[in-house]
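In full, the data.
>
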Amino acid sequence: MSPTPAGTPVRLAIGITGHRGGNPRLAGNGAHIAAVLAAIFAEIETALSAERVAAPALTLHPTRLHTLLAHGVDQLAAAAASELGWEIVAPLPFGRALNVAINAQPHSHVDGMALLAGGEASDPGVQARADGIRQWSDRARLFQLADRDAEIAALFEAMLASPDDAVRARHFHAAAGSQAALAGRIMIEQSDLLIGVWDNGSRDGVGGTGHTIVRALEIGTPVLLLDPARPEYWSILSSTESLAGWQTHTGQDRERLHAVVGNALQARDGGVARTLQDEAWHPRGTRASTLYRRIEALFGGEQHPLRSLVQDFEPPERIASGSAAPLVKAAAALPGADRTFVAAVTDDILPAFARADGISARLSDSYRSGMVANFILSALAVIIGVAWLPLGVDGSKWQFAVAEFGLLAAILVITWLGGRRRLHGRWFETRRVAEYLRHAPILLLVGVARPPSHWPQATGTAWPEYAARHKLRAPGLPEMTVTRAFLRFALQRLLAPHVASQRAYHQAKAKRLETISHRLDRLAATLFKVAVGAVAVWLLLRAGAALQWLPYAWPHASSKVFAYLGVALPTLGASISGIRYFGDFERFAAISEVTAGKLAQVEMRIGQLLAGPDAAIDYEGVSRLAHGIDEIVVSEIESWQAVFSGKPIALPA
């Protein structure tokens, strides 16, 4: 584990789940549980202080607590977090009014309807619970899943109007539980650690405490569990299997808690801690680094392959009004969106992407052009080194040897510089950051996050994943009410155009790379065939002269020319094959083809959803599509990395 990269603002995020106030164990031991939660939060603060001491350059933002604000453990945790100055964020399963009405647990139809209308309940206990939820809702940032409110409110009213109707009660609890589970999933995705107060009871209640804890463990989020009967004894679990008998081996696992905090705040790369800010920004590429792109242009079927290929990289400060202008315009027009949040995404995430993309493109050009130059120079070294043969200048062979030496020395210099400047590694690192950030605005604007446990494992360095994760962590959840109008607009103007453009890009890329691979292969094969033909012609001349069918002088006079062709042509063919191997155009084409196919499926699903009625569009479906895009991106990065990870700049041996 390496130190936290300096200049990367980081934040610890915690989730909380637990029994409601009506639970007998919680009701009889609430003060004790509240004290233990406060002690655990204080221990987390101690761990954060230790991180600050270990990494003085650490820029640590206040811890963020995610809670559904239900009466009981959620509010006890919110009170303890508030005392420490933590930020409180609430992914509510319903719109605010419906959330109050449902979670106040009214017993009568009159009280339920009064709360739903924003009024007060006649039952003091119900009203006390409603007041608590309202007060904490005023103090938290709310991400309200209100897209199904009309449907669920109708089920809620029907259940209260017919309290003895088991069917109506079942329908309501199923719908409400589904929404609670969805809000719980959002909380888990946003958190480094889930704290649960649970008596090890039922895990089957969808959206309940046990269900949420199991879901967190399934996706790899560590869970700190407290038994409400003995809250002072707690354990941190990391798998669903560890739930078996966990209450019999509990203890205050402070060391493990500190480790969880450290893992969330430190880059686990085993190497030098770096950030994107360590890389210098250059607005323009260089002619010397366009050799690889020239190969692509010449063999990829471009209409003007000899045009200038020097790239101008989009300045980070101009991307919002440049290539990302349609995205920014769509984000600004999102119905009911959090304008401050939208500004944070467009003013912070987009420039970070532009910077990573431009730096990576420049490093890529330098690295890949260096390797292409090595292959070409190695062929030229051989071709020029034996060029004295057909020219018949035996006395000047040393001049050709000097030229060959110069070319070989250039290869050594290019290889040394590439290794010294870490072109291969830096390109890999910055490209990973760029690809994570490329899709980030789409995910963030709809409240979707990749869980900390689901980020790819690094190969040699972890700072790119670390930097991207904390960059995306910074905005958190938008403060807004999710409606079906918002979801339809997000599908039409954010997800659909993004998926379509990426699908078209990968389709075109796959076709271009297949063409390059085929043409390079054909050229290399042709050079070998011509070499074989040249040798065959000379052998025929030699045989004809031996049989006195041809003049003896013919094979003798042409022997050096044919010998030269027999060396030069295979050498050049091998160089072309080396470029084809190094570029791995065929495998990259296959990766892009697979990616395009996956994106086409998502595009089709988006179209099917948009073709249906508004009632068919809900947050669960839209977030599932956003997660699908995210999975495709990460899969493509891992496949691409697997191809190129073993190809650092090296001698063309």
